[in-house]
Each structure stands twice: as structure tokens, then as C-alpha cells.
């Protein structure tokens, strides 16, 4: 277990995060020590005490986010009642079914309980078990960096205005550089991590993960053109209840991460049925393309023109190499780019994702079949793409499930409220 945690930490994300924590902490302590030695105010300085507490909490919650992990769905997991598998998606990598709120993470190569997102800074997913620790880590980092920014800027102001009679030991150029760098990092953490913290708090209050937000947005978009009722989050049971599902003094979440309390009128599979219906629609939208010009897999494909170069998809998803004659199943459309999966590649080899899928310039391929809604209308395409982004989290479904959804993909949606008219 300890080795696994060590392995997780030995990646660029956690190492950079730890280096930033270390730099800010040591520089803030250096400035505090200056102040303490010169003023003789001792360790009772409130900003010093507060910084030490939040610096310790940041490190504690960071390590626990990695150590605890998000919680994994057991391999070959099946629902207790076998008849319920028709409401679930299969995971070809874990050889089982995905429990409600679980998703397969391609980076962790496991199905994650209540998956929120994969965070490169902890080199792990944020999910059922570490959601509390992760949120506490963000909160402590933001508060700690607010205090360190105050201490460091205060020290710099004293240095600038009292150059001749600077009361502390005059700093070397290296120390000055490190203090200025630390101020930059501290402000950066307050802004960037503060925004992430805002989204996490919003997600906790709604009891709705980042992935579920996409599913719900898509669910309501599907209904926007029909008289169907609005789809509501089945896991939201009031803000206080929702908060208690994640936030507690010991940062551990209640429940087993598989069975969830649901709102009145919903059942365990309300959301998974909607996911299956969306999957079914995605499959209907997919179109086959033939590659007529080689795609290099480059993030900056200069040879495909200025417009393609200047309008890349804003995502870290891979860009794929394609040869002339390759067939690609396209599921997402941008103005100058397409997202698709190369046909004829075995999806799973030795439990690993072997699929060749990603973005490539639109000019490289021609459609073999027309999409009914295929046009260059930016707004329409943008919306399709935004909604389709959620699907990237969902791994391949089995043909048997496909059949079950094709018969009646939406009939079982039980929790609805009347759409405002
Ligand atoms: Zn899986
Ligand atoms: Zn992951």
C-alpha cells in the first residue's frame, strides 16, 4: 500500500505540487523568522500561527487524497439482482458492470466510485472516498496561500520602504528572487485553486459530480426540443443532506459508494438509464469517415492550414495519426476538427485500452455517410460538441446492452418534474 502511494506521488503532478508547497512554506517561514528575530514577538504572532496550521493541513489533506484514493469498484462487479444489469453499462476493462455513479478512468485503469474527475496534481482520481480530503486540501491551500501572500508582501513592503534602515537581515538576491516567486505562486494558487474550490463546493452542495453535470445538461438538452419533462438529479436531497454526504470532521464519506440514497420518485438506476439513452443517441449520431490525407497526430498541424492551426479543440485529449484509406467512426464535430475512433482496432488487449481515438483535422477525411445535422453552423456544432464531451468518460457498451436500450431507452426515467412553460 505504501509503495503504491509512493508510486502515485512519484509523478510530475504531485512532485510539482509538493515543490510549490515546499517553496511557499519555506519562504514564508523565512520571512516570519526575520520578523520574529527582529521584533522579538515570539511565536504568538497570529499570522505565523495561522500559516503554520494551514500549511500543515494542506500537506495532511494532500497526502490523504493520494493515500485514501477515490475508492475502486471491484473487478467483475455485478449488481445483486442480475436483472438489473440491463440498466447498467458494461466495463470491458474491469470485466464487469459500472455501478451507479461509477465511471472507468483510463489513466487509473479502474472503475472509480462516484468519479468526479482525474486530478493530475494528486495523480489520482477524485471520487467517493477522497472527495472530502480533496476539498479540504483545496480549502486549506487557498487559506494558507492567502496568509502567506499577506506575510510575504508585508515583508517586501518593509524592504522597499525601509531600504536604508531595514530591520531584518538584508536578503541575498537569491532570497529576493525566491520570495517574489513565492508571491507569484501564492497569488496563482489563490486564484486557480480558489476557482476549483468554488466548483467543488458547488458540486457538493448539488450532490452532482463534474461528470454528472454533463449528463444532466445533455439530458435536458435532449428534452429541450420535445414536450418531455425536465430531468432532475436523483441524488440531490437538499443542500444540507448533500453536504453531509461529503463533508465531515474526519473527511470520510458515508456509504459503500455503490448504493446511494435517492430523492423521492427516483430509484438506483434513474441516472444510468439516462446514460444508456444518451449512449444510444451518440451511436445514432456517429458517422463513418474515410481518410484521404495523412494525419500526423500533431497538436500544431501546420500543413493543414492556418484556420485548422488556430482553432484547435480546447482539451488535452490525444490527437491521432491516420493513414490514407483508414476508416474512422466520428462522434464529435468541430469546425476544423473531428473526434473519432479508428475502425478495425481491437478495443481491449490484456485489460488495457487499445483503441486509437482522438482528434484529427477535418480536412483529412471525407464522410462516407451524411449526418442529418452535419453543417458548419458553429453554434449548433459547439453545442453538440459540448454535450458530447461527457461521453468521453463512458467506455464501450456491450451489444446486449445496446439492444436493451434500442427497444426503449428512456421509458424508465422515473424522476421528473414539470418543465416550466
Ligand atoms: Zn472499469
Ligand atoms: Zn483516474
TrEMBL record:
Biased composition (Polar residues): 397-412
Subcellular locations according to the entry: Membrane
Region Disordered: start-end pairs: 397-421
Top-level taxon of origin: Eukaryota
Catalytic activity: L-cysteinyl-[protein] + hexadecanoyl-CoA = S-hexadecanoyl-L-cysteinyl-[protein] + CoA
First-tier enzyme category under EC: transferase
Residue ranges annotated for the Palmitoyltransferase DHHC domain, each copy included: 87-214
One Pfam assignment: DHHC
UniProt xrefs under InterPro entries: Palmitoyltrfase_DHHC (IPR001594), PFA4/ZDH16/20/ERF2-like (IPR039859)
GO CC aspect terms: membrane
Enzyme Commission number(s): 2.3.1.225
Membrane topology qualifier: Multi-pass membrane protein
Major localization listed first in the record, in broad terms: membrane
MF-aspect GO terms: protein-cysteine S-palmitoyltransferase activity
Keywords assigned: Acyltransferase, Membrane, Transferase, Transmembrane, Transmembrane helix
Residues that span the membrane, as ranges: 12-31, 43-63, 136-161, 173-199
Comment on protein domains: The DHHC domain is required for palmitoyltransferase activity.
Family statement drawn from the similarity comment of this UniProt entry: Belongs to the DHHC palmitoyltransferase family.
PANTHER family in the cross-refs: PALMITOYLTRANSFERASE ZDHHC16 (PTHR12246)
Protein name, per record: Palmitoyltransferase
